[in-house]
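Weekly sync notes, structure subgroup
Attendees: PM, AL, DS (notes)

Item 1: joint prediction request from the bench team. They want all two components modeled as one assembly rather than separately. Inputs as received:
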Amino acid sequence: MQVILASHSQMAKGLKQTVELIMGKQSNLHANAAYEDEQESLKKQIAEQITPNSHDLYLFLTDIIGGSVNTTIAQMIEDKENMFLVTGMNLPLVLAVLTAKLDNCSSDQVANKLEEYCEEARKELKVVRITAQEAEDF
Amino acid sequence: MIKMLRVDYRLVHGQVAFAWTNFLSADAILLANDDVAKDDFRKRVLNLAKPNGVKLIFKSIADSLKAIKSGVTEKYKVFIVVENIQDAYEMAKGTDEIKLIDIGLVADRENTKNIAKSVYVNEKEIQQLTELENKGVEVVVKQAPTDRDVQFSSLV
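Output from the run, pasted for the record:
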């Protein structure tokens, strides 16, 4: 499984750094900053990260729906069964995806799992209220 | 069973709550700390870091040892977090159930030396950890779960 983060400018790279501070180095996590000066086009960067003829699972996470980063990737992976795209990424989502074990799942199973992770990550976007909680014990 | 005890002055935060709990497949985090155990506000704040589906239990050092000795922890995969090496020492001296200690974050204080990234120890703490190693406890120094295992004894 390869996880590829992509964003306008540095968000993807920053997210990768944050993830790796928390979890340690992740060899299957890649980050692409689009539209920075003096750098290859996003399309070219992504094309280089996809191993030709690979059946490996690719998960693309992008910054915002409607952004050109998301649109570009959506077009590139349109007809590929082993490639998935999620947009509106946040740190909880990236952490969930990286700890997932999806390598032996069917295409449908991966899609369902991703729906679950999105649902969980959505819940973690919230107003913080420090409320009393019942004490837990063994 | 007790999966691991981690020393971390930030107690339960993202790295601990998420990465370590996941890595250890823990289903209960025991925060063993005398001050937090009697401070409701800190408990509420620390509860923000509680991962889904995992118990977060606050106890003093004495009560933590009491719980372990009573056997109630046996049906859980327990991940213990303490604030400093003194507390880790008391816990591991008090029970043989703790077989693995991870030195994660230890604050820089007077008369301490830096032995790894974010780990500062004084002479007394070196002695305490060496004593635990001699009694058969594995003591590793690492921040994140996928970092390399470094034995404490190799750094002092």
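Discussion: The longest strand of chain B covers residues 2-8.
Action: AL to compare against the crosslinking data before next sync.
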